[in-house]
Amino acid sequence: MKKLLLSVLLLSGFICFSATNAHAQLGIKAGFNSANFNDTDASLDSRSGFTAGLTYDFGIPMSPITIQPGVFYAQKGAKFSGEGAETTTRLDYIEIPVVAKFDFILDNPMLTPHVFFGPYMGFNINAEQEGSAGETSGSADISDEVKGTDFGVVVGAGADITKFNVGVRYSAGLSNAFEEGDGKNGVFSIVAGINF
Fold first, then answer.
1. pTM of the model
2. Residue 134: which pLDDT band, with cuts at 50, 70 and 90?
3. Alpha helices, DSSP H only, in the chain?
4. Radius of gyration, CA atoms only, the chain
5. Domain span holding position 170
6. CATH at 143
7. Which of 29, 42, 102, 191 is at a distance of 20 to 30 A from 135, taking alpha carbons?
């Protein structure tokens, strides 16, 4: 936990420090997550959640490529329904992606479409399961069953519209989210934000 806090503080400090530079592109983003587990034989439904965080665009001179590190809060997990019962697995992470963003330069300076991809590292901060069957319901902490870290890749596309931005992204976990058993995080996101 100390390493997680240190990593988040260092990245946040770097972003805030860089934002004082005249060429800095500090961004705030938030959006909707539709999460599920991949590489599992279980028949699951998506869990709806949200994501929010900070990004910093580090432009490469004379190039349409931008390196964009960030730090996000992301809700993941999935739902299972069957035989009159419903179970929701809620996994929440602090996620640190570092993506390469490629801008498509158009004649219209107010609109810049882009695509991006790169790795991410996630740190689990909450793991619980909620269940209900008829009039009975309850929840349990499953932190001992969930790995503390998650890593994978993220790909997406979007557009900068003046100082605003919109986009879609998909993050695919490359490691199992659980200590035992199968299930890798997979999240489709729709996000919007503003650059400073």
1. 0.85
2. confident
3. 2-18
4. 18
5. 2-195
6. 2.40.160.20
7. 42
